[in-house]
Write a structure and sequence with these properties.
Blueprint: H1 5-18, H2 27-34, H3 38-50, E1 54-57, E2 63-66, H4 75-83, H5 107-110, H6 112-129, H7 133-143, H8 147-156
Antiparallel strand pairs: 1-2
Helix pairs in contact: 1-3, 1-4, 1-7, 2-3
């Protein structure tokens, strides 16, 4: 499975925004923080806003901010907002074409490959659903205690 690189960008942006409650940051500034293309990151941020993960604030102090508590934003929420809700594996029921195929059978349920892939997908989604932006932010702080303050200072010291 290959995820859109925007998933990574969106997750990092949400972690940074979690350290700046109530402050809105423009897509341009968030993109500059990681030297990303602004237009492409903006598309990801807009997708997060459509999903209710971010809010878009207009005006001179506008930009993006978290729409809800970072404890209530799972990594799965972000993946779904960026990559969509579709499962990674799509059973096309090729067993219908095999010798002795039963045209009435539901091969999505009978196919052991389909079952294995769906099981893996479920595990993957459970793992992502069980981790929040707050969880990731906390682990970052454990590794780099100054990260929140450095992030806030970076954005506070940027010129308009």
């Amino acid at each position: 499975m290959k995820m859109n690189e925007g998933v990574e960008w969106a997750m990092h942006s949400c972690v940074n925004l979690s350290w700046m409650p109530g402050a809105a940051v423009t897509a341009k500034r968030l993109a500059a923080f990681y030297e990303l293309p602004t237009a492409y990151l903006n598309k990801q941020l807009q997708a997060l806003a459509r999903a209710g993960i971010l809010t878009s604030v207009s005006g001179p102090k506008g930009g993006f901010q978290l729409a809800r508590d970072p404890r209530n934003i799972s990594l799965l929420d972000i993946v779904v907002a960026i990559d969509g809700p579709d499962e990674a594996f799509r059973c096309t029921e090729i067993l219908h074409a095999g010798p002795g195929a039963d045209p009435k059978a539901d091969y999505t349920k009978a196919c052991l490959i389909s079952q294995a892939m769906r099981s893996a997908e479920l595990s993957y989604r459970r793992e992502l659903a069980g981790q929040s932006i707050a969880d990731i932010a906390e682990r970052v702080v454990n590794q780099a205690p100054d990260a929140p303050e450095n992030t806030r200072n970076h954005f506070a010291n940027l010129k308009a």
